[in-house]
Amino acid sequence: MKVLVTGAGGMLGQDLCPVLEDEGYEVIETTRSSMDITDAERVGNVILSHQPELIIHTAAYTDVEKAEIEREEAHKINVLGTRNIVHACKNYDIPIIYISTDYVFDGEKNTPYKPEDKPHPINYYGTTKFEGEEAVKELDKYYIIRTSWLYGHHGNNFVTKMLLQNPEKEIKVVDDQIGSPTWTVDLATGIVNIIGKKYGIYHICNSGEVSRYQFAEEIFSVFGIKANIVPCKSEEIKTNAKRPKHSVLNNNGRYRDWHIALNDFAALAEF
Prior knowledge:
The chain is α/β, with parallel strands linked by helices. 37% of the residues lie in helices and 17% in strands. Strands 2-1-3-4-5-10 form a 6-stranded parallel beta sheet, sandwiched between helices. Strand 4, helix 5 and strand 5 form a beta-alpha-beta unit. The longest helix has 22 residues, at 71-92.
């Protein structure tokens, strides 16, 4: 099967493409330079030229903080860009896998969110990703995959942010935001395993839940770093974007525990 991946140069894309190739798929890697998703004509021409049998749409504006300020850009990429991909899928009858986020939820639920739960984003990034979901639902053949607290070797994320801190200085980390950290390699494997299954919405994330503070503690622990981590509340940290307090996703126990994934990530990391 020929699979076109948008955002192939991103944190997820760089792990996803090799996994697809290992499974025998013919992968067409596209980046902003080769197919700017905000350019509808360009999107149509590239997809017509390659004629993929499946599109995995990972390209996105992912900076939660900046999205509150750069709203036009975030909307252009996450909403208009996704609509351009959807339009091409509709024209050429191509199924799509759309990567979404736990941030489509408000975090007010005390139990893990199920795929059928109604989204209610509380920041602009989450809003644009939900609007992207709505665009994808216009198709008959789609997979919406929500994931959470993503980290990997090929981009900026919470894990790399922690490791770049000076461990001798006080590091404040919120202890009232709960989620499920997910390694890009495990998400990539989960995406590949979804191909061919029933269309619909899926939650793919590592299992278990943890606060940001506890996650930070574990990060430093697995890397053998003694750090001065101090718990605090979200209100103590000035941010542009509001974060959901409890955005754990229900994955029906299909994926391994986040502790195990983090240890495997650390074993391969170069910091």
